[in-house]
Structure formats: C-alpha cells, structure tokens
Amino acid sequence: MSVNPMAYEAQFFGFTPQTCMLRVYIAFQDYLFEMMLVVESVILKKLDGFPNCKISPFQIRKSTEKFLLFMKEHFDKLFSKMEEVLLQLVLNIPKNVLLPEDKVHEQYPYSKEEFQALQDEINQLQQQYRAEASAGQALRAELEEQKAVRAELEKILQWFDGLENICREHGTGNLKESFAFLTQNSKKLQDVLKDVEEKSKKIKKHDQLL
C-alpha cells in the first residue's frame, strides 16, 4: 500500500485513496476465499461419485490451501500494479489543479515566511488581548472596591449630617463645640449609668438580707 498521505485527494473525495484500495483488496480477497471453498465443495461432490477413489477430504483441503496460496501470491502482485495505476491515474489530483474551496489561495498566495509572519502577529495579538482582558478585570475589581468605599463614605457623611442637625437643634453650630457637647453629655450619661448600677447593687443586697 502507498504511504503517501494524499491529503488533498482525501479533501476532495471524502476518503483517502489508500482506504478505498484497501477495501477493494479485502473484497477481492474475500471473493477469492469464497471461490476456493466453492471449488473444494464441487470437487468433494464429484469424488462421491467415485467410491474407489483413494483421495481423502483432508488431501483435498491441503491441495485447496496450496492452490489458494498460489492464487493469493499472484493476486497480490497483480493488485499491487493495479493499485499503482489507480492511485496515479484515477484517484490522484494533479499538482496544477485547485479545488473550488482553495481558489482563494490562488488569489492571495502566501509564502511560508509570510504565513509564519502572520502566525507570529496572531500570537502577539492574542497575548495583547489576554493582557488587556486581565487589565480590564483588574480595573473592574478596583471599580467595585471604589464603589464599596464610596458607599461607606456616604454613610459617614450622612452620619456627620445627622450629627450636625442634632447640634443645631441644641444651639451648637460649630463642629468642635458639637464634639465637646457630645463628650460632656457622654460623661454625664456614664455617671448616671454608674449611679444606676450602684443603686441596683444596693437594692439586690437589701433584697438578699430580707
């Protein structure tokens, strides 16, 4: 069998010419084996008509196998020549013939060097795309983080606005004075809380004594 891949022929026919020839070879070989079995069965039937014949079925089988081997050797030689002719003259696309789907290569021919340059450019563009995609992902992550920070800042501003409104309600417009006012009230609340806790402890002790 030919070792030439014949890829262009496979593109046109939809199968490799070698595969076609292999199937033809197997079909012929199967027919040859079947023919020899038929010949053997005919010989055995003919011998049944000669009771005094000393040829046994085993000898006939050996002769059939020997004749089959002889036929196969000659068949292989003939098929080899037939395969060579078919692959060259029937299943072969000439070098100067282009398939319709490959006409574009005739209009825009490229050398190996130009094709390699295009491949290098494509690889470079792919690397740039990956880098830009990675940078875009990092920017999106940073934008989400900035949104979260902005939301927290807005909460703080709202808290300051609320604090300022409380201070204004109590007649304190300056932020420093507001903090001083809050600090003073906080200390008063702490003192009240401490006084309440002490009174609570005294009440509990009094209840235990009772």
From TrEMBL:
It is found in: Chromosome, Centromere, Kinetochore. InterPro entries: Centromere_Mis12 (IPR008685). Transmembrane segments: none annotated. Keywords: Cell cycle, Cell division, Centromere, Chromosome, Coiled coil, Kinetochore, Mitosis. It comes from the Eukaryota. Residues 108-206 form a coiled coil. GO terms for cellular component: MIS12/MIND type complex; nucleus. One of its GO terms (biological process) is mitotic sister chromatid segregation. PANTHER family: PROTEIN MIS12 HOMOLOG. Belongs to the mis12 family. This is Protein MIS12 homolog. The lineage of its organism: Eukaryota, Metazoa, Chordata, Craniata, Vertebrata. The gene is Mis12.
